[in-house]
């Protein structure tokens, strides 16, 4: 008799784009290693409540953009708190019954959560009798108390530091595995540089990729981007504004950025290719983008980390020599000079790739989930 395929349900939430990207990366990674496994990724809020979901997300996005300090304060003041109180309130009636129905319908052999909210919801369903293994993938280089739930069968975390932090929140050592954050298999290999340059109409010269994250938070209050434009005759700049149309227009309308060596892009699914032809990445330190940069061995400069996870992510990558905090023009001068020296830039990149190979294996997370399901 033909055995039916194993099924993995991956649940995320749309706050920032990293959680869902991690879920998709893990889903593709699992299928890449074992095509007999079926995967399904759902963003819980959007799926269960198409009207409220996006409203909550856009309110959160406004807060992050306009009041990052408030986000940091909330993050720190609730650091040790579990999600139970929150779960008993707003989400209670809305999420549990519908999530339960989704699980009954899809009959997964395992559930992976990449965000604390679905994690709390599934944990509660398990307390009420749901019998499906729950794996929790923490998509940052920090572990907030809201992740901790006794019902989680296994935590998949980025580093030994995150493992230690989870243990401080009361999670036993045996339930935590250090796997690294998964990236899409597109980031596991390099593409042909000449083809990529042709595709994006780029020149073969020292190149800097500037990313504002999924929301494209490219406000240039310190004038650092304008300062970078001063290098445009010798350094090519690629700005990725994500879904932020306003930021894209603002850059396009600035005469400083109208130059053959400056490209302004909106949302693209081909960041892996742009990283292949770039010598330096300037980005917000989201857990996912940093891990993608790490997997490509590209040096990173981090700007304006949002207090909370982004600060922790930034600290990890700086401490481990994968990047530096972008604070002033001197940092720009130093790095823009380095990438114009082919030998020095090549050596630096090779050293990062060696370090990456010691610390990170892109298949590890997908392998761990497949093993746990056996």
TrEMBL record:
Pfam families registered for this protein in UniProt: Glyco_tran_28_C, MGDG_synth
Supply the gene name: txxe 1189-ypfP
> What InterPro entries does the annotation carry?
Diacylglyc_glucosyltr_N (IPR009695), Glyco_trans_28_C (IPR007235), Glycosyltransf_28_UgtP (IPR050519)
- Stated family: Belongs to the glycosyltransferase 28 family.
Q: Which residues form the Diacylglycerol glucosyltransferase N-terminal domain?
A: 19-183
Q: Does the record carry Transferase as a key word?
A: yes
Q: Which organism does this record belong to?
A: Thermobacillus xylanilyticus
> Could you tell me where this protein is found in the cell?
Membrane
Can you give the residue ranges of the Glycosyl transferase family 28 C-terminal domain?
Answer: 232-340
Instruction: Report keywords, A-Z.
Output: Glycosyltransferase, Transferase
Q: What is this protein called?
A: UDP-N-acetylglucosamine--LPS N-acetylglucosamine transferase
